[in-house]
Structure formats: C-alpha cells, structure tokens
Recover the amino acids of this structure.
C-alpha cells in the first residue's frame, strides 16, 4: 500500500511574517500611551491580590526567567498601590534615662520626627544658654553666697572665739604645715623650752591642762566641718534645683503643649527635664568663688582621661533625637528597592566610634536599614542576592515572623566580638516584601525552607511568552515605543516594529507566540538604533533591525563558523549529497553563552546477529544524558513491537554519533537513529542530502522537539556553503511546523525550490522520503507487501532470527558468527 | 622727665604658701624689667621650733582632726624642706628671666626677721597673708606690720593673681608717680593691660598727663587706658579698682600720702595686690 509522499512546506509556513500594514501608526513616535506590562495577566492578578490582602504572610515572590521584566512590572504595580496607601509614621530613637543601653523608640506622624529633633535641639541650646546665665545672675549668686557664708561663718566664728579664748590664757594657735597646734606664749613669743623648764610644776600642769582643753575644743569644731560642708552643699543643690526648675518650666511647657497628643514624647520630655536637673553641673561650670568641693571636682575632671570639652559634648548627645525614619514630604507608602541586601543594610546597624582607643557607641549612632525605610510600605529584593548574603535571609524571615525590627549586631549575635553595644527597642514591622527571582529559586525555597510557604504565600509567575494575536502585536508595538523612549532611542518605523515582532516569535521559538523577555527586546532595539545611527537615518527601519540581528549573529558566530569550516574541509565527515546505508545526518543544537545554533552530525548504525539489544555507544562511555538513552531504548521497543512481535528480536545493533567529542543529550535525534538503524537492517541506502530531527515513540510516531529553527538553519548553512543542489532539505516533526520562524535566507531558498522542509508525522513518512521506497503497511496477518521498505526489514529480521535459531539448536552451518 | 629712683635690690619673702608663689612671680618680672637683684628670704618660724621642743607638744591634724605628738626633728626637717622648695622655686623663676639672685634662710620671729631684712632692700614684696586660719583675715600679721615699718616701697601680693586682669596705677605728674608708673609698666608687660588713674580735678591737666604718659609708654611699645579721678579718696580708689576688676593697684602719689591705716582699710575692702611707692 502506497503512502502519499510528504510535501515540502511552502515559504509562508516557514516563517510567519508580521504585516506592517496592520499597525495604524507610521513610527513609534506616534504612540504616546506607555506600554502596559505585556502578556502577564496571571502574574498581574497575583501581584494585585498579594498587594491587596493586608494579612501576615501574604508576601510576594515574583518568579520568572531573568530579563522577563519582573522587576519593572512589580515596581509598576507597587507604585500604583503605594500611592493609594497611607503614609507610614516617622520613627525616632531617644535616650533611655533609666537604661542607657536600651534606647526608646518613638512613633510620630510623618514629618514630625525631624520637627521634634529640631525642637529638642533648639530647646537644648536655650537650656545651655539660660542655665549659666541664671546661675551667673547677681540674684542667684547672692543667695548662694548667703548659704555658703552662713556655714563658713559658723565655723570661722567658732575658731576665732577659740583663738580669742586661747589668747586670754596666753596661748597662741599656731598653723603648722599639716595641722594646728596650741603653744604657751610670753611677750608674744612661744615660750622657749628653757623658760618652760624653769616654771613650777603647778604652772606647767596648768598650761598643759589649758592646752588640752583648747585642743579638745578645736577637735570638736573641726569634726563638724565635713558635716557642715555637706549641709551647705545640700542646701546649695536644693537652691540650684529650685532655680533651674523655675527656669526650665516655661521652656518645656511650650514643647509639651506642641506634643500633647503623643504620650511617649511627653514621657520622654519629662525624663529629659529631670535629667537636666540631675546634671546641672554639666550645663554650668562656676568660674570663681566656688567652694573647695567644686574645685576638687573640677580638678578631678581635668585629670581624667577625657578632656572636659569632649566629655561635655558627648554628654549632651543624650538629649538628641535620632530620626531613624523620616516620612515627611512623602505621599503614600514607601517602596524601597534594596540592591545590596546585606544583614546590616536590611536590619540597620549600631555604628561605633573610636575614642581614646576604645570603640564606643550611643543611640545617635543607630542607623536605619531597608526594613525601617520600607516599614508601612513595600520592600523589593532580588531573591538571589538576598540568599547570597550571610544571615540576610534568616534575619528577614525572623523580622517578618516577629513583625518587629530588632537591631542586633551580627558580631554580637554570633558571639564574635564583645564590645559595648546597644539593644534598641524593637520597632513594629508592617511591611510587604516582594522577592524577585528565577523559578528554580522559588521551587527550591518552597521545598527546602519550611518557613517560606508561610511567609511568601503569593507567587506571581511571570510567563515567558504570550499569544501572537492582534492584541499581542499591538502591545509589542507599545512596548517598542516605551522602550525607545526610556532608552532615548530614535522612533521605530512600523516595518521595523513588524520585524521586532517577528523576532519576538523567533525568541519564543513559536510562530504563534511572542517572547516576553523584554531585556532581549530592549537589547535588540538599542542595537538597531545604533545601526540606524551608523546609517545616518532618523527613524529605525526594518533593515536596521535585521542588521542588528545579523551583526549579533556574526559577533557570536566564531564557534559556529569554525565548526562549519571543519565540515567543509572534511575534518568532520558529513555528506550533503548521495546515498549511504546505515548513515544519516542528525541535527543538534549547541548553546554557547546565550547564542544557540544548529549543527549537523553524522549518526551511523551497524547490525549483526545478536540477542535483541541496541547498543548506544554514547551511553556506554557515559557521554549521553538520560533523555538520549531513553530515546535509544524506545527504538528497541519500536523494532520489537513492529517487526518481531511473534519471534525473538535476534539482532545486535550499535548506534553512534560520529565525531562527537563532548556529551550529548535529548531525544531529538531518536528518529534519525531509527532511520539509520532501519537502513542498516534493510541494507537500503538513505539520502544524505536530507537531515533529520524529531523524537519517536514506540509506535513510530514522530514527536515535537526544540530548537527546530536553529537545526534547519544549521543544515541549510552547510548546504549553502557547498552549493545548494535543489534536492536538499530537512525532515522535521509535523508538530514543529508552528514553531518555524526561519531566517529569510532559508525562506528565500525554499521559495526558489533550492531547499525543502518536510513535516513528518510518522517514521514511515520519513522512510519514504529518505529511501524513495514506500514504507509499506502491514496487512491483517502482520506481513508487509513485497517491494516495500518494511518488508525488507521484516525479512532481514526473520533471517537473523532463523540463524539465531539454528545456532541455538547446534545446526549452525559452519559455526561462524554472522557478519 | 621721670626722676628715676633706682631699685637695685628687691626682697621677696618666700614660704610654701600660694601667696608667696604669687609674690615670687611679681618679684621676678619686676627685677627683670628694672635690672634689679632679687633677694629671697625664708624665715624658719622660731615659734614652731620652740613649740616642738616643749614637752608633750601636739598638733591637731587638719584632715582628720586627730591629735598627734609633735616631733622636734620632724618640725625642723619640714622647715628645711620648705626652705629648699622656696630656694628652688626662686632659682627656677629667676633663671628663666635671667635675674641675679641671693637666697637667705634665717631663723627667728617671722615679722621681725622680714623687717630686719627689709632695711637693706629698695622694694619689699610679701604675700598679703600666709596660710590663713579663716577667710576673714585678709591681711596677715607680717604684711600688716610691714605697712608701717617698711620705709621703702612695698608690695603686698594676693594669692592666685588673675593674670588677665589689669594693673592700675595712680598718677599725678610727681616723680613718685613716674616711679610708680615705671613699676606698673613692668608688671603689665606680660598682659598689656594697664590703667592709669589720673588724679586731678582739671580735665586739661588730665589730658596733658595722659599725653606725656602715652608718649613714655609708646617708647616702651606699651599702651594704657586712662581714667580721671578728681581726688584719690579711699572710696574713689575702691570704685576704680572694682570697676576695672583690677589685679594690682599701685599707689605713688604725693597728693595721697597713704598712711598705713588707709592701706589697711583699702586692703580690707579690696581683694587685689597693692604696691606702695615710697
């Protein structure tokens, strides 16, 4: 039974042209509306859902191929959502007067944080000016002197009285270097030892007694001194406090009324006031007339490690307000894109300064992280970058789970360093995180991290391609227009746009779809713009786009060219005419650094008597992947099922990719392998001016494969280099016709009848093309008609089986193994 | 012009007190400027020595108010140590200013010893008070005695001089005034702050004197501020010093003979150093 010969495809089927006439514009300059995100309806729905739902854990993971415009799209959706969201509050850190290492966090309405900082700075400046002037005032000094004098006077009067009493008794009070002493005097001079000796015993005893009495009195007076001093100090302190309180009250009252609605701020302001009163000495250093105690303190301060000025400036830091997050001037929620998501950049950090060789810190050195800045809004992160930063992923999960931002030094957390640090009060976190990453990251995280599914409930899956319908093409045109504007490119003529659409299909590898890989499209536009500029044109034409594509191909084509050269010089043996048995041209696709091209490859098969196995030489040497091995095993299934269902398959065949020195994978060569095997079995030559691609199943149906365009072009280029004979062509699976977006050269050659592309449904169709013989269909008894290819195969297998049987029964003719 | 009454010997009494350190500083700057010889005097107070020799002598320690037996050797050693310190301080200050010095240590009643030594000096410089028992004694007994007993020029120095404050000097055109001005200029050398109190009721006279003084100071590359006082009464002098926040007041005016009693009253009110030119 004859089967109709497969027809070569028409040029129109080889590449689906885009008709520029369908575009209503002349150049993209006529298009004003910005491009919507094209072809991402599913992702868009997911993003909108994710942003709309204000529940915990509904964070977003935008997954898709790199360069597919995820970030642009997510940013665009976020911008819309953020504008409508309320502006989040400001956050400040202030000193904790009870526990200095645990700074307090203050929440304030947007813009009020900087206001508070300014107000407090002004207040402090006023306090620092007003306190010294208060204490220098005559009024205060007089009160202070009165207190001091009242105590000193008491002592001095007592001493003077004692001195006077001593004098009455002819005894003088002498000042020694380290103390005071009483001495009997005569004529204003201390009695000499000789005179003293001359006195009577009674006189001497009397003097002794007087001196002792006076000495006791002196001791009593002197013992009172510290107590009196303390009392004096206390009274002066009370006076200072009273006067300072009266001075500060009006200053603070003004601020307190401003911030009356914020109880945290009021609490803090009160603490500031109390602290100033407790530390008045820091605000006022008495110049003169100070008491001994103050002098001593001053002395001690100067001898200390820190200079007085540095010490006091560091002291005043405590009253400052550290505005961590300032949302003043913002309208809507913040969107923060942290490009370098380190632990510290995310969670914030507490910096330290070196002072006198030591690292010290305080709350003014707390710096905000991306979480702080994005709090109340959206944080956009690249998943891969995030995962690459040590501890960043764990920390962001912890923050999202605890719903608070807790600043901890990484060194401290790990126990690596122990220096003075702070434990700032955690700030409540209300944030949506949008992670952007490739699909494998999403699935890997989902599988390996139990927290992931809990925290990132919304997956926005960005499609790689979209239908090439009218809407799609229109959207593409708008995309070209927008990209041209964004990149400052010349306008694109509609013919150029049509060419871009065609290339979009080629990128998608499908005549009915368009690639959504905007990055590649943008690259093409930029390059076309360059060539347009080189050509001195004002509007980018189709030829510029073509030039960009050709130039890109040429730039990346070194390896491709070297390979073809090797074939042309017969280093690699590939025939493109004639016929040969057990030998066929397969087609492989090579991907080198983002550039893919097709490469013909000779596949050969030999058969001999054996036990029904097909040896895949590639697999034997571990140069093939599992898909390839699977394809070869399917061949055995096909052979056995079709030709040897009722008897043993008594052959041993070997299959090899000739001159392949690297690995190989994929099942797209399985139909070619089958043809080679059948040719070897049937001992029937097959055409070498045809190349074959397509996988095959156990029933002999030819199935779709990938990279069909590159494969056809690979063989075409080789044939063209040797000179087209008019009979050359490629067999492709019929299912791949929809994927054809071939280079114009191929299309032209086909139109001129110089080259052919055959869509093949079954192995039999392929065999008919390759051998020129009908394949033949089995009749009811399972036998094939004479003169058909399948008949030959069946006969040969029958022969082999007979020989096998004769060997098995010991009746072999001469014991030789069959060839 | 100025009748230069040459000062060749300056006597400065030094002990371990803050006032005597200040006295020493003033003495060195004057001696340097006037090309005079500086004579340091340390008096070992015989009263202390005697007290230490009395049986069962005790002192009450200032820090602890504890009674402690006095040891003769210890007292003598302390006095020798103070004398050595005073000598070193004098030597160091004088060496720096390149002033020739002598240093004497005598044992005796402090006031008598100082006054005896003062007889040979052209200018005597003392601390206003040594270590006072109470703040209210602004004038020590030696200083008080020196006011009446020293026939020549005398300077009583306050403890802890405030160097940025001005030197004030009275001026009435007399030779004594010029001598006073000479000393004032010497003391103000370091600070460049000098105020001349022109004692006259006649503004024209004041202007004339001011021009003369300014010329003379100009030659020394010094400047001064001027103030006219109609009369050099106690009250007016006190006001002038207080208003200028003066550190030193130098009085050398024939119209103001300054009996010792006036000086005592002045010092009772004022906290500054005082120099009397005689």
């Amino acid at each position: 039974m004859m089967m109709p010969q497969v027809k070569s495809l028409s040029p129109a089927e080889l590449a689906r042209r885009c008709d520029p006439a369908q575009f209503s514009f002349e150049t993209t300059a006529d298009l004003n509306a910005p491009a919507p995100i094209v072809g991402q309806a599913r992702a868009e729905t997911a993003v909108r859902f994710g942003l709309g739902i204000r529940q915990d854990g509904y964070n977003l993971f935008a997954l898709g191929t790199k360069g597919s415009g995820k970030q642009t799209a997510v940013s665009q959706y976020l911008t819309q959502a953020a504008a409508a969201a309320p502006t989040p509050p400001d956050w400040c850190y202030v000193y904790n007067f009870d526990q200095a290492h645990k700074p307090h966090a203050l929440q304030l309405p947007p813009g009020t944080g900087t206001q508070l900082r300014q107000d407090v700075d002004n207040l402090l400046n006023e306090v620092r000016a007003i306190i010294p002037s208060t204490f220098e005032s005559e009024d205060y000094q007089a009160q202070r002197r009165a207190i001091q004098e009242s105590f000193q006077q008491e002592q001095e009067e007592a001493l003077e009285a004692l001195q006077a009493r001593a004098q009455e008794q002819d005894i003088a009070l002498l000042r020694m270097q380290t103390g005071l002493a009483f001495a009997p005097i005569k004529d204003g001079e201390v009695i000499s030892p000789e005179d003293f000796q001359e006195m009577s015993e009674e006189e001497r005893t009397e003097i002794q007694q007087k001196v002792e009495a006076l000495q006791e009195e002196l001791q009593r007076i002197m013992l009172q001194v510290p107590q009196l001093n303390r009392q004096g100090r206390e009274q002066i302190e009370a006076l200072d406090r009273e006067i300072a309180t009266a001075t500060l009250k009006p200053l603070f009252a003004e601020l307190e009324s401003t911030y009356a609605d914020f109880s945290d701020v009021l609490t803090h302001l009160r603490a500031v006031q109390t602290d100033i009163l407790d530390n008045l000495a820091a605000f006022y250093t008495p110049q003169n007339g100070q008491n001994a105690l103050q002098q001593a303190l001053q002395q001690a301060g100067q001898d200390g490690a820190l200079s007085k000025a540095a010490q006091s400036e560091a002291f005043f830091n405590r009253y400052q307000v550290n505005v961590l997050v300032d949302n003043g001037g913002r309208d809507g929620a913040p969107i923060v894109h942290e490009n370098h998501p380190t632990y510290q950049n995310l969670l914030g950090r507490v910096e330290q300064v070196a002072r006198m060789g030591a690292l010290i810190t305080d709350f003014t050195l707390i710096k905000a992280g991306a979480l702080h800045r994005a709090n109340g809004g959206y944080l956009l992160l690249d998943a891969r970058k995030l995962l690459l930063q040590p501890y960043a992923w764990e920390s962001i999960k912890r923050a999202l789970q605890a719903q608070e931002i807790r600043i901890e030094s990484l060194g401290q957390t790990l126990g690596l360093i122990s220096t003075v640090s702070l434990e700032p009060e955690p700030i409540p976190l209300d944030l949506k995180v949008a992670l952007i990453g490739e699909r494998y990251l999403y699935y890997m995280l989902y599988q390996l991290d139990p927290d992931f599914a809990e925290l990132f409930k919304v997956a926005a899956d960005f499609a790689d391609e979209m239908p090439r319908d009218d809407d799609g093409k229109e959207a593409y045109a708008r995309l070209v227009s927008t990209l041209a504007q964004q990149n400052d490119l010349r306008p694109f003529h509609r013919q150029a746009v049509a060419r871009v659409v065609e290339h979009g299909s080629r990128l998608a590898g499908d005549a009915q779809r368009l690639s959504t890989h905007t990055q590649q499209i943008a690259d093409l536009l930029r390059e076309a713009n360059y060539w347009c500029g080189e050509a001195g044109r004002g509007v980018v034409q189709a030829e510029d786009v073509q030039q960009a594509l050709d130039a890109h191909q040429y730039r990346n084509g070194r390896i491709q060219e070297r390979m073809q050269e090797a074939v042309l010089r017969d280093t690699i043996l590939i025939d493109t005419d004639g016929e040969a048995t057990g030998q066929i041209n397969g087609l492989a696709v090579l991907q080198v650094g983002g550039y893919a091209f097709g490469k013909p490859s000779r596949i050969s098969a030999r058969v001999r008597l054996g036990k029904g196995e097909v040896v895949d030489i590639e697999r034997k040497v571990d140069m093939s992947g599992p898909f390839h091995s699977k394809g070869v095993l399917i061949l055995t299934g096909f052979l056995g099922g079709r030709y040897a269902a009722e008897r043993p398959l008594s052959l041993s065949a070997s299959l090899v990719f000739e001159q392949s020195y690297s690995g190989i994978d994929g099942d797209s060569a399985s139909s070619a392998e089958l043809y080679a095997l059948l040719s070897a079995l049937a001992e029937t030559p097959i055409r070498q001016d045809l190349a074959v691609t397509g996988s095959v199943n156990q029933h002999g149906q030819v199935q779709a494969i990938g990279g069909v365009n590159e494969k056809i072009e690979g063989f075409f280029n080789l044939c063209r280099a040797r000179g087209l004979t008019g009979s050359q062509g490629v067999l492709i699976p019929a299912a791949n016709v929809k994927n054809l977006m071939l280079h114009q050269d191929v299309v032209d050659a086909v139109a001129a009848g110089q080259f052919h592309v055959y869509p093949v449904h079954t192995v039999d169709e392929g065999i008919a093309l390759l051998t020129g013989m009908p394949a033949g269909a089995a009749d009811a008894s399972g036998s094939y008609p004479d003169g058909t290819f399948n008949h030959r195969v069946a006969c040969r297998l029958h022969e082999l089986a007979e020989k096998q049987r004769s060997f098995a029964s010991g009746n072999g003719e001469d014991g030789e193994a069959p060839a | 012009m100025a009748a230069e009454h040459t000062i060749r010997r300056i006597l400065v009494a030094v002990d371990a007190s803050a006032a005597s350190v200040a006295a020493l500083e003033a003495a060195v700057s004057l001696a340097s400027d006037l090309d005079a010889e500086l004579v340091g005097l340390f008096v070992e107070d015989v009263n202390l020595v005697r007290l230490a020799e009395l049986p069962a002598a005790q002192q009450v320690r200032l820090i602890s108010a504890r009674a402690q037996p006095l040891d003769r050797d210890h007292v003598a050693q302390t006095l020798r140590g103070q004398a050595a310190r005073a000598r070193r301080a004098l030597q160091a200050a004088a060496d720096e200013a390149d002033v020739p010095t002598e240093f004497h240590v005598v044992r005796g009643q402090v006031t008598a010893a100082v006054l005896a030594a003062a007889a040979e000096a052209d200018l005597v410089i003392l601390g206003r008070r040594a270590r006072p028992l109470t703040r209210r004694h602004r004038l020590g007994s030696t200083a008080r005695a020196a006011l009446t007993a020293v026939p020549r020029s005398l300077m009583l120095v306050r403890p802890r001089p405030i160097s940025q404050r001005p030197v004030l000097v009275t001026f009435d055109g007399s030779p004594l005034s010029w001598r006073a001005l000479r000393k004032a200029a010497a003391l103000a050398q370091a600070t460049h702050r000098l105020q001349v109190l022109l004692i006259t009721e006649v503004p024209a006279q004041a202007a004339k004197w001011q021009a003369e003084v300014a010329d003379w100071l100009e030659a020394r590359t010094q400047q001064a501020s001027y103030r006219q006082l109609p009369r050099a009464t106690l009250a007016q002098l006190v006001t002038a010093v207080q208003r200028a926040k003066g550190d030193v007041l130098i009085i050398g005016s024939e119209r103001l003979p300054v009996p010792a009693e006036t000086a005592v009253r002045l010092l009772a009110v004022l906290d500054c150093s005082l120099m009397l030119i005689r």
